[in-house]
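Project standup — Tuesday

K.O.: blocked on the structure for the chain from last sprint. Re-posting the sequence here as requested.
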Amino acid sequence: MSQYDFDLIVIGGGPAGESAAMSAAKHEQRVAIVIPEEEIGGACTHKGTIPSKALRAAVSSQIRFNSNPMVKHIKSSEVLHYADLTENLASIINKQVKMRSKFYLRNDVTIFEGHAAFSDANTLAISHQGGPVKKVTSKKIMIATGSRPYHPDDIDFSHSRVYDSDSILSMQHNPRKIIIYGAGVIGCEYASIFAGLGIKVDLVNNRDRLLEFLDDEISDALSYHLIAQGVIIRHRESFQTFDADDKQVTMYLASGKRITADALLWCNGRTGNTDALQLDAIGLNANHRGQLEVDQQYQTAVENVYAVGDVIGWPSLASAAYNQGSTASTNAIGTDPLNFVDDVPTGIYTLPEISSVGQTERELTDAKVPYEVGRAFFKDTARGQISGQKEGMLKLLFHLDSYELLGIHCFGAEATEIIHIGQAILKQENHGNDIRYFVNTTFNYPTMAEAYRIAALNGLNRTGY
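H.V.: unblocked you, prediction finished:
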């Protein structure tokens, strides 16, 4: 009989926590998960990925309808309001919760509703709505508590016109103009959503260009498209202070500029949810953003305590979190150890989408790697013309001598889907990674996937192949 109540307890029910719990349960471990009341699925399901992408999909559908020449004879006098689009979010969230609840039931995972704090390295104190504290023990503990929007002390987030990336989903009024402070992934996604609704956007960026981790050409394409939608992008700017009243908000920038709008969306960073875990009880420290440091097995400085997902920082993606959870779980219980998750495609749900995997032109140039570029513009593909996709491009980077695929960068409709075709080839070993695969393979016609053949031919023609 084990001295512990469980083999693994997971704190947090987002993608990382769910994956960790399911993986351990399928290896016949005694597993429990601690989830705040009515938050199965974590912030990903309730406040982040699922509702924001559902909102984006609604705006995208409206834009495609309005721009489709086949329905130009249909006119509507109705104005599309932001609040109208958010009405359907609850039903989508409920579907996700019901589905994920069945996962735990089917795999015999014990669910504790409440908040967990460490008593010692093997004991958690779980509190629930002021009721009695329940103490449970486990051989291993996994921290997967996720993150929340960063709130600087000098911003009044209780004001009715001030939002973060969580609270913006419940905004009830329809602003004519909005300031978005922070031009990271979330800021750019919301800038394109609001611009798609015809709302004027001031996007304040404290860096030299948008999303500097992207290939320069893709970053430029995003900037161009946002500007074409009417977004004012303010680079190299930093926040100084702001005022807000019942009618408007005014942001003062360090450069002396003053921007006025109907609402402010603060998108400048996130904080790991570790402050309530009583980490000092086990001698574990989080950094200034509430994040935990882990090794290649996702183990913290405390031997039996692991951490995964947003709470460990980069890459802070739901896709990566799923893999991190299963990897850390198998490492923790000692079965089939898996590798550290470090090869993650970028998926950015702006309008249009952006997705990348592999190296950028700047990285290859700095490393002095001889490469060539192949491009396919969606406006030149049959499927793009049929579906009215005027914007978009697939870009392939490959080695000039070996034809090895080095990087794939896509801007346009369905980019986050299209990228995986190239990713599959990029990951091949034993000479399987070769851009010539795309010209020797038959693609369905007309499809967006055909862009791979077009881009490969474009690049190979440059080499004299």
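K.O.: great, moving the ticket to review. Residues 379 and 390 are 5 Å apart (CA to CA). The chain is about 30% helix and 25% strand.
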